[in-house]
Amino acid sequence: MHVLLVAGFLGSGKTTAIIALARAIVAHDLKIALVVNEVGEVGLDDQVLAHQGLDVRELLSGCICCSLAGDLLETLEKLEDSQVVDLVIVEPSGAASPEPIIQLLREHTSRFADSLRTAVVIDPLRLGELMAVLEPLISAQIRLADTILISRRDLASVEEISRAKATARRLNEKATLLPVALTAGTSPAMVKELLPWLN
User: Considering the domain 2-194, what is its CATH architecture?
Assistant: First the structure.
């Protein structure tokens, strides 16, 4: 079982990215489960994902990076024990730093996962504004990613994409930077980067 964490601030496009990746997995006749964290009593992203016919495990009324950490590990262990899931995508709340949950997963995934990848979706149309008002949250998300998906490639200008790349590279020297048009689905480069084990 492989684990992919997909983070990003609200409205960045991470749910669209997850749906596209899920479709790519299903097209390979593999099984996927989604663990979605929404802070509040009613989750919205999980409703969107479930509407796509995907298996969604929802963690509510808290954040998986703190109060629900034990629930997350228990959920992942149960999925691994089921031996029917090839990939688990974990979507933390867009309003929380993914650092504690990434640390938790890196410490414990050897118990239940063959691999762990982390991706962050950033919106080049709003990145400057979000950096100005939501620091250090946005920087923390970017710093921790293995892959940074720069969404809305089909809507952003060349200059906006370049600025987003420069900001991401300043904060994270090692991550792969990948501009994507998520509404068009996954590109071969996106699948290869986020799901390198997929044949």
Answer: 3-Layer(aba) Sandwich (3.40)
Ramachandran bin of 152, using left for φ above 0, alpha for ψ from -120 to 50, beta for the remaining angles: left
Angstrom distance (rounded) from CA 130 to CA 175: 20
Name the more confident of 66 and 35: 35
Q: Dihedral, CA atoms, 14, 5, 142, 160, nearest 10 degrees?
A: -30
Q: Give this prediction's pTM.
A: 0.82
